[in-house]
Amino acid sequence: MNMIEAKGVTRTFTLGEVQVKALQGIDLDVRKGEFLVILGPSGSGKTTLLNCLGGIDTPNSGSIVVEGKDIGGFKEKKLSGYRRNTVGWIFQFFNLIPSLTAAENVALTLEMARDRKDMMKRAREALDLVGIPDKANMFPSQLSGGEQQRVAIARALVKNPKIVLADEPTGNLDWVTGTKIANLMRDINKREGTTFVVVSHDISITGVADRVIHLRDGRISDREEAAPEAKKVMRE
Ligand SMILES: Nc1ncnc2c1ncn2[C@@H]1O[C@H](COP(=O)(O)OP(=O)(O)OP(=O)(O)O)[C@@H](O)[C@H]1O
Ligand SMILES: [Mg+2]
Asked: From the CA of 16, which ligand is nearest?
């Protein structure tokens, strides 16, 4: 069963007289529980595609159907519910709030209506899931890059989203740490059944993917391409 079905998605940005065709007709199905990696060079449209899939940006044409529902037809309230509850985001720059501890950063994502004790409990469980339960009371400046990315992953997962959209999740990490983060996301994908769409230009992430596709100039090229070299590197 497909979690996401995108058909003919285009997105053009107009900058004065110039039109930038960021997405030029994307057809993409993502299976439920799949770990999909989309590789593409800088400017190929990766972030734009994620923003459209996550309901942050609206395509100029085409449709995005999630669990059988066209998100283009959602009214604002439903769309914001989709953004907040169905989707979990992992950003390239961890986007942690420096004045909040790791646990508070994770808890912040939860509805403010919940009571604080319950929010912090769930935040701690999420930090446990990503392997840093002992860092709950640390501030981002006291954490390594890899630990900050774990906090960002915990934040994406704390609401049990069906889909995680990750933008260059290993882009700011050294290779060893990046590989650990890739494996962590894969473990969570397997354990929780969460669908992952990861965009990157870092081929080391392809080693954990169910499927790798390539984005170039806003178009998908060579679909279903395996990445044997990267898999080999990952095992060494
Ligand atoms: N808000 C915007 N206004 C104008 N142009 C934009 C906007 N967002 C993206 N673009 C343009 O669309 C194209 C695709 O951008 P996008 O950010 O999706 O690329 P990317 O693949 O994520 O690149 P990177 O790897 O550098 O993050 C680029 O040419 C970019 O300049
Ligand atoms: Mg980008």
From this structure: 1
